[in-house]
Amino acid sequence: MSLKPVTEGQEKWLSTLTERARGTFWDFIGCEVIEASTAKVVLKLNVQPHHLNVIGIVHGGVLASLLDNAMGLATMLLRPHENTVTSNLNVNFVAPMKAEELIVTAEVIHQSGRSLTCTGKVESSGGALGTIGTGTFRVVNPVVVLP
Q1: pLDDT in tens, 1-28
Q2: How many other C-beta atoms can be found within 10 angstroms of the C-beta atom of residue 141?
Q3: In angstroms, rounded to a whole number, what is the distance separating the alpha carbons of residues 106 and 69?
Q4: How far is CA 128 from the centre of its chain?
Q5: Hey, which CATH number is domain 8-140, 3.10.129.10, 3.90.380.10, 3.40.30.10, 1.20.58.340?
Q6: Strand partners, 2
Q7: 44: left (phi over 0), alpha (psi -120 to 50) or beta
Q8: Which Pfam families has this protein been placed in (predicted)?
Q9: In what order do the strands lie in the sheet with 83-93?
Q10: How far is CA 36 from CA 10, 33, 40, in A?
Q11: Quick check: 123 and 134 in contact, CB under 8 A?
C-alpha cells in the first residue's frame, strides 16, 4: 500500500496502517492509495490476471472489496482513534470492468454516534463507470488505537 496523505498529521497514522496491512487481504488485492483525507479516499488498482473471472472481466468480488476497502479507509480517517467495521455493503455492478487500471473513490456522507454511511464508485482510468456502492460502518470495541 503506498500513500499520499493530504495532511502531515495523517502521515504517521497512514504509515502505521501501511505496516499493519502487510500480508493482509488489502495487501493481496494490491490496491494503492492515491489520495486520503477526511473528505475523500481515492484508490488505484492495476488489474492482474488473478483479479479476473473466467470470462475475462474483473471479478465482482474484487470490485466489492475495492469499494469496501476505500469506504472503510474513509471511515478510519474520520475516526482515527476508533475501529470501524463494515456492517452493510450494497454493490451495483453497472457495467463490466475490463480496464487495466481501476480508480476507486469513496466518501463518508453521514455519521451519527457509532454509525457511518459511505458512498463509492469504481471507474476505469478513462472514466467509464463500472460499479457503485454504499456502505454502513460501525464503530466497535475493543479499540486498537493506531498512533
Answers
A1: 344 444 556 677 677 777 777 888 888 8
A2: 8
A3: 9
A4: 18
A5: 3.10.129.10
A6: none
A7: beta
A8: 4HBT
A9: 32-36, 41-46, 101-112, 115-124, 129-140, 83-93
A10: 9, 7, 6
A11: no
